[in-house]
From TrEMBL:
Domain of life: Bacteria
Lineage, top ranks: Bacteria, Bacillati, Actinomycetota, Actinomycetes, Kitasatosporales
Protein name (Swiss-Prot/TrEMBL): Uncharacterized protein
Source species: Streptomyces fuscus
């Protein structure tokens, strides 16, 4: 199930900043209810240059449906949240920004937040060409591009396990995405880094999933990032996320698109070269196999020439 909401904006850059605030708030609300990315929901935001903020929340948990509308009424607009979203936006666009000052940006965001969201179920037609565009309280300024540095966060499987138990690679693939989705979201929320891309490597020497963040002027403390990763995984254990994950994998269907998690069978096979059918998932997706993989996984954080592995 998807819940999609849109809101027209006259200032594109301000709308983009607002989109980051909204997606952060949705994640906060779900996390407070002990729900997690990949296994319970997935949020995706986009700001179109024609003047539209678009938020799409995929729901994999029946208890999550009402939370989206609640989250849209609880968007935090304060100095801390604005600064974090600003850091993300600056790292994402790598452009110099100008503006009319914090108070003007905050007031404009508050005004935008008061405008009602429109759900696609109830929406007729919006022609954003009719919305008068303006530079607004935040705009791209003249000057050199702002080059971001890259932070890499990798979930790596012990190579002996990857070779000896190749049949578990598809389960590792799904588990790695579950971990990366939630750890990466937490890193973005806390530090204001932008999740720029990801890459996957399955070779004779390495089985790893890596998230790449663009880091602007925000400081980087690798030990602090590792500590945050541990806290996220610990919370997932306490809140039953891994148990729900195993249960959902056991009920994966190739004929019914209404799977209760973000599952891409083709991508899984292309990366692992191990194809698993529905019966195979019922055999592979066990708590014992999951715990065995978790105990064989290392997390690596790299920033420039600095690197930490735990």
């Amino acid at each position: 199930m998807h819940k999609i909401f849109v809101k027209p904006v006259s200032s594109i850059l301000l709308g983009h900043l607002y989109e980051h605030l909204v997606c952060t708030c949705i994640g906060d609300v779900f996390r407070q209810r002990k729900m997690y990315e990949y296994v319970d929901y997935h949020v995706r935001g986009r700001t179109f240059q024609s003047g539209l903020v678009y938020v799409d929340v995929a729901l994999y948990n029946n208890d999550a449906e009402h939370l989206v509308a609640e989250a849209l009424t609880r968007v935090a607009i304060n100095e801390e949240s604005i600064q974090r979203a600003y850091n993300e936006l600056k790292a994402e666009l790598e452009m110099p920004f100008g503006g009319e000052g914090y108070d003007a940006v905050r007031d404009a965001l508050l005004k935008l937040n008061e405008q009602p969201w429109q759900s696609v179920e109830q929406l007729g037609v919006i022609d954003t060409k009719r919305t008068r565009k303006k530079a607004g309280e935040l705009y791209v300024a003249e000057g050199k591009p702002v080059h971001s540095h890259k932070l890499k966060l990798s979930v790596q499987l012990d190579q002996q396990i990857a070779v000896k138990d190749r049949h578990l690679l598809p389960l590792f693939h799904e588990l790695a995405w579950l971990l990366l989705d939630n750890v990466s979201r937490a890193v973005s929320w806390k530090y204001g880094y932008f999740y720029a891309s990801d890459k996957t490597a399955y070779t004779s020497k390495l089985a790893a999933h890596t998230a790449v963040f663009s880091v602007g002027e925000a400081p980087v403390d690798l030990e602090d990032v590792i500590t945050l990763c541990r806290e996220v995984v610990g919370g997932m254990h306490e809140d039953g996320a891994f148990e729900r994950f195993v249960k959902q994998l056991k009920h994966v269907s190739y004929s019914d698109e209404r799977n209760s998690l973000r599952f891409d069978a083709e991508k899984n096979y292309e990366l692992t070269s191990v194809f698993v059918g529905e019966k195979g998932w019922r055999q592979l997706a066990t708590q014992r196999n999951l715990e065995g993989l978790l105990s064989s996984i290392q997390v690596q954080v790299q920033f420039g020439c600095q690197k930490i592995v735990r």
